[in-house]
Amino acid sequence: MPEKPTTVEVNILDKSYLVACPDEARSALQESARHLDSKMREIRASGKVFGTERIAVMAALNITHDLLEQSTVSDGASSVLRRMDSRLDDVLNKKSGS
Questions:
Q1: Tens of pLDDT, residues 23-45
Q2: Which residue of 5, 59, 61, 80 could cross-link 39, Cys pair, CB 3.0 to 4.6 Å?
Q3: What angle do CA 42, 26, 21 make, to 5 degrees?
Q4: What is the number of domains present in the chain?
Q5: Mean pLDDT over residues 77-85, rounded?
């Protein structure tokens, strides 16, 4: 039976938020909040974006872009490894068939 979520307080851009979270995910939530806070502070410090809501949207877009970029790299690497595996299988099959 899953544990009942507890409330965790996180601080993002000088504001406190209470978030329901299972105990086992508490440290991941806190790390996520620190990362978001850092990104939002970078954007605010640039002076190009004004308003907390706009800063939050820009931070979300930047973080999402980074994640999608990593995923694309991972997909590309997986594709290369699959092709290499297939080539190795072909070579090994030819050697064992000779």
A1: 999 999 999 999 999 999 999 99
A2: 59
A3: 105
A4: 1
A5: 73
